[in-house]
């Protein structure tokens, strides 16, 4: 009676195959972790951009409607030590540098307005019902995100910080183009530019670390007639 058995060469080939498979497991797990980390980062960036977009849909400052209901949002005066005085009102007019005197154009608030200036400071705490960009300062949101196949589940915390930044131009105002070098550091008083700094991090230590900050800027440029849903005029 013959007995069947492995030859030495078959045994060696089997050992090699098992070794290759065993070595591939850590690589597969590592690649899976990289994919999850990448997905986490992309979800965090998308969430931050979405929240920033929501904030930018609000008025630059609630005082832009100081001329009354039905009147488009005006450019506000920012006469303060922190602001570039080149943007001050041209004496005797409702214009400043860059404005065009004509209908349906962006216009500086009337000098007879009761409150032609932006809010001097940005509230340290968020508003329950924001009416402008300022009301979102420190308005933290918590998101739970899961893949469709439940391959990963993680939580994100989004915290916006609203601040005034320098509006000093780097080129002379006599040029056709005025350039700004937007800073990331806040200044102590109202200027013509606000920065929205959105910080995103995850709160679950079992998921890949996320620590991202995106920034957007909003300028004191008022509204044009076509953007005023309520209609009306000057």
Task: Tell me what the structure shows.
This protein has 234 residues and is of the alpha+beta class. 24% of the residues are buried. Helices cover 21% and strands 16% of the residues. The chain has one helix at 8-56; strands at 141-146, 153-165, 193-202, 211-219. It has one domain.
Number of domains: 1
The helix-and-strand class reads alpha+beta
Rg over CA atoms, rounded to whole Å, is 29 Å
Q: Label the overall shape.
A: elongated
SSE order in H/E notation? HEEEE
Number of helices: 1
What is the arithmetic mean of pLDDT?
80
Low-confidence stretches: none
Give the CA-CA distance, first to last residue: 109 Å
The total strand number stands at 4
Percentage beta strand: 15-25%
Strand order of the largest sheet: 1-2-3-4
Residues in helices, as a percent range: 10-25%
Major sheet description: 4 strands, antiparallel
SSE blueprint and pairings:
Elements: H1 8-56, E1 141-146, E2 153-165, E3 193-202, E4 211-219
Antiparallel strand pairs: 1-2, 2-3, 3-4
Structure keywords:
234 residues; 4 strands; 16% strand; 1 helix; alpha+beta
Compose a concise summary of this entry:
The protein is α+β, with helices and mostly antiparallel strands and 234 residues long. It has one helix at 8-56; strands at residues 141-146, 153-165, 193-202, 211-219. Helix content is 21%, strand content 16%.
